[in-house]
Amino acid sequence: MTARTATRTPLSELQALERDYAVPTYARNPVQFVRGAGTRLWDEHGNEYLDFLAGISVLNVGHCHPRVVEAVQEQAARLTHVTNLYYTEPSLTLSKALSESSLGGKVFLCNSGAEANEAAIKLARRARPAGEIVVLRDGFHGRTYGALSATPQESKQAPFAPLVPGFLVAAKEPDAIRAAVSDRTAAVLLEPIQGESGVLIIDHDVLLEARAACDRVGAALVFDEIQTGMGRTGTLWAYEQTGVVPDALTSAKGLGGGLPIGALVTGPRLADVLRPGDHGSTFAGGPVACAAALVALELCSDPELLDRVCSLGERLVGSLAELPGVAAARGRGLMVAFDLDPDAGVSAPDLARRALLEQRLIVNATGPSTVRLEPPLIVTAAEVDDAVARLGALLA
After folding, report:
1. pLDDT tens by residue, 2-57
2. Which of 99, 186, 283, 377 has the fewest CB atoms below 10 angstroms from its CB?
3. Cα 172–174–178 angle (5° rounding)?
4. Is the Cβ–Cβ distance between 60 and 254 less than 8 Å?
5. Do residues 109 and 260 lie in contact, with contact meaning Cβ atoms separated by under 8 Å?
């Protein structure tokens, strides 16, 4: 087969390759992207798209941010991998930066959000052997076995039973949290905003009770900030807006500026629970991914950027709520969703597909009636208004 670059391979040929050689786990849209910059993507024909999904909150700093690209190129030319049997500067510099930006404990680096949550589960059970993990209804924590067992969604869990035992599901109510947490509890694991279930913001009373219940029994409170972190909600970490400080948090997605990386960050109490040999990963803390993450973390910590995320998020939610056919809009910062009125005459998956193909706007559906928007944090007010106008053209 003649070698081709991605930009010269027609979409039809890629679809044939997928059919013949790729495990069919993805329902892909019929578009091939070949280039990205900032908030924009271009397909193989040169058509320009406005990206209001950011790779599902991965490109928080935008596509191919020049500083991220420079850091990756420079690091890749010097050192790409040596394993964690040896020291490398980028991984330990990133660990320090993550700790100092959040909980002040120690950091386990990995390659994805699911891996970060697996590490958090192991951390909790190392601290309280055989302890239960309490999770919230509608939560999503990943697709590997421990993370899947923490994801109480029948459609995702049922085909892969039996799952890892010891997970207890609680309703998103203070009384339910209080009843679920006991001396057998190792941790409460929750997303402060449930992204994959439709940007569902957990009530403050629930977070307060989770903190209080964990304190009563000596369990760990773990926040899954894989989607809410890295400035997405208007502060570097979502927990900063709640007044509730977890014992550990997990990060990924936007952390790598487009490269795959994840992290478990502990507070001081759990910093030394995991011991040599308890956990590991061949590629964890790789120099190239860490170099990118250091730049992304710095960019997403900028106070002016975070202030703009808050104001533009309010602008986006308010504008979406006024569109015809929209029953409700919600969000925090630039983590936003809206629900379609049953009488709108269109489903969320259909609307997302039409937005892509007819309006060249990238959003996604998290359910039959819910559309999610998570643009790069560098988005402008004009681009927010443009995205709303493109959606409005479909709903008119």
Report:
1. 334 445 799 999 999 999 999 999 999 999 999 999 999 999 999 999 999 999 99
2. 283
3. 110
4. yes
5. no
Residues with Cβ within 8 Å of 2's Cβ and at least 6 positions away in sequence, in order, are: none
Q: Which two tokens stand for residue 33?
A: 């992207």
pTM here?
Answer: 0.96
Question: What phi and psi values does residue 184 have, to the nearest 5 degrees?
Answer: -85, -5
- Name residues of the chain where pLDDT drops below 70: 1-7
φ, ψ dihedrals at 150, nearest 5°: -90, 5
- Provide CB contacts within 8 A for 110, sequence distance 6+: 116, 118, 119, 261, 262, 263, 264, 281, 284
Looking at the domain 67-300, which fold is it? Aspartate Aminotransferase; domain 2 (3.40.640)
- Strands 370-373 and 335-340, by their bridges, are antiparallel
What percent of the chain has a predicted confidence (pLDDT) above 90?
97
CB 55, CB 257: distance < 8 Å:
no
Cα–Cα nearest to 254, from 221, 301, 286, 288: 301
pLDDT at site 8: 76
Segments making up each domain of the chain, as ranges: 67-300, 306-345
The number of C-alpha atoms within 13 Å of 191 and in the hemisphere containing its C-beta is 28
Estimate to the nearest angstrom the gap between the alpha carbon of 74 and the chain centroid.
27
